[in-house]
Amino acid sequence: MSRRNLTKKTTPVDVPKEISHVDSKMGKRKRKRTLSSSSLSSSCSALSNSSASNDTTFSKAADPEVDLTEEVAYSVKEVEAPMYIPSDKDKASVNLIAEIQKNRLLLNIGGKKFETSAPTLKNEPEGLLAEMISKDSDVAPYKAEGLTTYLLDRSPRFFDFVLDYLRDPLNFVKILPSNKQVLRQLHVEATYYRLTGLVEILEQQGRSSIWEK
């Protein structure tokens, strides 16, 4: 037997088409996975570079909120206030207030008490009220609520107007009531208290018509 005949012949095996097709698909999937992993690595690398860039851009030195925690020292120049020098008129007003405080009194008018002062009642020197509180008066006051008190048996309804006139005689005409009935009664009270200035205001200033119906 010759040596050529002893050589074993190899017969090629046919691979089914279905198996070849599956291997081809799996190869594609592997390539896709490889590409996906590569893309993910690139994205992470880009994000890392972006964070590093941001850290460099927004440093503490450039952060505007850093200054909020830092103490700021400043100073304000002291300015002297202008010196107040009261005028003679201002001094007179203050002195009058001081005198009123020392000479408070009560008037019991028909059971209603009105607190006032001796300087106010003396604004009409010839009036009944000024005479009543004078040193030579025969009217003896009494004490009520710790104050010198005088009793007058008159209606208290319009006595507010009487006191308003005595407190500011020059400007009372500006607040004169317009009701004719009130003006008539006030004229009666002004006459009783002998307040000639108030009587003149009521009879003048175009108020003579108060007696007309």
UniProtKB/TrEMBL annotation:
Name this protein carries in UniProt: Uncharacterized protein LOC111133067
Gene3D superfamilies membership: Potassium Channel Kv1.1, Chain A
Ranges of Basic and acidic residues composition bias in the record: 15-26
Region Disordered, residue ranges: 1-58
InterPro entries, per the entry: BACURD1-3 (IPR045068), BTB/POZ_dom (IPR000210), SKP1/BTB/POZ_sf (IPR011333), T1-type_BTB (IPR003131)
Annotated source species: Crassostrea virginica
SUPFAM superfamilies: POZ domain
Comp. bias (Low complexity): 35-54
Span of domain BTB: 103-210
Single GO biological process annotation from the record: protein homooligomerization
Signal peptide annotation: none
